[in-house]
Protein: beta-glucosidase
Amino acid sequence: MRLYHSFFPFLGAVSAASFHERTDNGVPQYKDASLSPIERANDLLGRMNWEEKVGQMGGVRRLAEAKLAFNRSNYEAFVETQNGILGYGSMYNAPLDLLPIANQVRMEQVNSTRLGIPWITVTDSVNSIYLVNGTLFPATLSMGCTFNIPLYKQVVQVLRDENRALGTYWVLSPELDLAKEPRGGRVGEMYGEDAYLVGSFGSQYVKTMEEKNEQGYIQVATTIKHFVYAQNQGGVNLASINAGINWIMNDLALPFWKVIKEANPLSLMASYSSVDQIPMSANQYMLQDILRDTLGFKGLIMSDAFGISNMFTAQKTATSAQDAAVQALEAGLALELSPGKPGYFPTLMSLENDTRIVELVDKAVHQILMIKLATGVFEQPLASEETIKKTLRAESHLEVNRNVSREAIVLLQNDGVLPLPSNSSQKVAVLGPFASLINAGSYAPEDPIDSATGSGLIESLQEALGADKVKYVQGCDIVLTNNTSGIDEAVSAAEAAGLAVLMLGSLSTSADPYMQSKRTDGEFYSHADLGFPGLQQQLLDSVLDTGVPTVVILSGGQAFALSNSTLRSNAILHSFLAGEYTADSLVEILYGRVNPSGKLPVSLPQASGATTAYYDFLPSDSVLAGPSGNGSTAWQWPQLQRESPFTFGYGLSYTTFAVSAPTLTTTNTTVQISTSVTNTGNITGKEVVQVYFRPKYTRTIEFPVRRLTAFAKYELQPGETKDITFSVNKEELGYWVYTKYHVYPGEYEFWVGTSSRKQDLKNATITL
Structure:
């Protein structure tokens, strides 16, 4: 059997000669911060016994799962065999409440164990610190709406600094999966459907988190994930992925390749799905031949929660817990992220005399030690109350949050009703079950109702307009009920006010037990119907039938299929998954204080059955339905076109923009795409100029009809024109055929514009 393994770029062979060395002052080498991480890791590994090594390959998922529910006996049972990584707490916990417990167990680990190897604290960090009282940003998909990488860098700096204030030095982000399956519940955790967009955001996340501090330590280690995922059958969370290697290499793996090349992340999480019928946790071909040997990844590979255990309990590809652990180890996994219960790697304890297993464990533990040493956890001081109070929710952090929240909202439709007059006596009926809560996502640490930081739409509107001008009627529940009495009340409120704002959506939250029963989105929640859950569509239709001017605001991570009746609305805004200032930003946009500038990072399907809605489809995917000559222009029956009306990159503004046709030139290594963008309207606004390409003809494989290769966001005054030149490396214009990457000479077509829609693009062709 071939065993595939690789080390970090700064790792070398473990040198036995360096074991047990001491510095001139008698300190063991691994405790001497003046030495390199490789010298320290080599020394420490040589001092460790078998139990200490295996113990490093797992840890305590979280110190607490509910408010201060720290259980000392459970903790000690875990620590006996799993003592490498530590989860600070859960979305229910406040940092200062947990701080004494966290610091106590950190000190115990250093002072009461033979070698004093410290914990490294690991956490999810999607849109906050995964604890209450941090800065709560909009979720990942909403970040993708901004198309603003410099602004996102500021967001990640906040997440990095707030995590470090808690003593957290390793995060389980960014998620590089492509949101191309709208039925999947985890779409809200992803940046979008396009590989270049996702890779751009992911690369910035890794670079910012792993930036070195003044002492030369990596500030926070990152974990790119989930390799590979997000094209699960039917959108079902744990379902398998049936994809050939060309599809994987030219689609699912592309954002990983981009981030690996640009940012060199320290770790990667394998998905818990099967790919081509082989569980990723034991998939040597995907994790070694493809990920390491072809894509060049050199960091640590960890399992997802359930990733190793699923092989035994669900996928039935392992005969025992130990068999699953050995398969994962042989595939290259170094760390097990266990789902809050004893993991499977501790079963390796009985294999101390198996020289092959010992070698693999040594390599795995060496990688774990290197991350601990690279982030400085051996030297970092304990978290302090003073630092936490000073850092979490600092005013500069909240200002970044306000700015990104304003750019994370997409205007989909507007017949001129928006912006609403700000100095009017017009009352407004606020309707729908999402107007009273913050729908922040399944990895958000806030209760979406009472204890949430920030406010829902009702509170923000009342603060802006006065309570006397805002009438709220929920109208219906989130989930299906037989109670329609609220709909009549909502209709009456709309007619009385003369203006209706409905906030509808799909709930993705984990923090509130009561709301759990109403949850319809997020991890483990898939969608057989892409319409609104419950009676929300009936509520909307009833209000629209009144003829009252109606603004619809969408909330949730899923890509809703907007029915023809929904499109009767005078305006539609999409807020996706919210942060604490999303409601305030919606009010600013509704009343024209902020000009919307968000763009769709995912294409919205036209119907629940039209789930292949993504923009970068293959040419043959758009062949017209019906026999030749019957006059059919439909892609599917009933009459649907392959390109969604609300497609990737689309989003309206209160002003208008014009983008000129591109001019193409070349250097030895790049294609230069020159264009200009003009604000042709009457107010200041921001526009995202997008560049797409495709080779006119390809060899062997089909290439998408177009693919994003550059974008940038610009703010323009009325009448202002900005000249722009994008430089695209020619190496970015190729494609994979099996595991060989090719950039062929020939004609290439480039488009520039304001979305991926044909009517929003202008093109030019060049021969390379």
